[in-house]
Design brief:
It is built from five helices and twelve strands. The protein has a six-stranded mixed β-sheet with strand order 2-1-3-10-5-8, with helices on one face. It has a three-stranded mixed β-sheet with strand order 4-11-12. The chain has a three-stranded antiparallel β-sheet with strand order 7-6-9, with no helix packed on it. The chain has one domain: Sandwich (Jelly Rolls), CATH 2.60.120.10. The longest helix is centred in the last third of the chain and has 11 residues. Helix content is 20%, strand content 32%.
Length: 195
Amino acid sequence: MNAPAPKTTSTPTPEEMERRVARFDDLVPYKDTMNATHGIAPEAMQMMSSDKVFPVMSPEGWQGRSKVAPVKGADGLTVTIAECPPGDRSGLHKHTATVENFFCIQGSFDITWGDNGEHSVRLEPMDFISVPPGVYREFTNVGHDLGRLFVAIQSPQGEQHDTVIHSAAAGDEIESRWGKDTRDAMAGIGIKFGE
């Protein structure tokens, strides 16, 4: 006698599906909560990432910056939206173990990479680039209007955070402009500089 085939479909309730919806108007940029909680000058934090990064989805139990994302997904994928006014940039940084993918929704962005940001490619709306782990990269809105990037970070199986290292030069500038206490406060929330 053959065993019945396993059920391959399901029908979530409307309430279950609503927990899988992120409403852009309800998203809170993660820097807003980090600045208020740790007393770090907003200008110093501005050097570490784009103007606003809206966490959309993160794995259940995620410990990184995007842990406040309203949608909890499967291991290995974190989704954010980076919103940048003209001239805004992310700061030169690298992800040690994750792949960072950029899909240009709106605006024009230069994606630079290399130890000193010596290489560059321009993304226009609907363009996509995938940056491998361990590569220093930065994105800059080079357009005249507000720009948005859909950012998908792929982490290794079972990882609960994304280690990001900012350029050593950024750490030195933070310390010279805002003092060692600010650099130490940033280290306290996991911001690393150089190696």
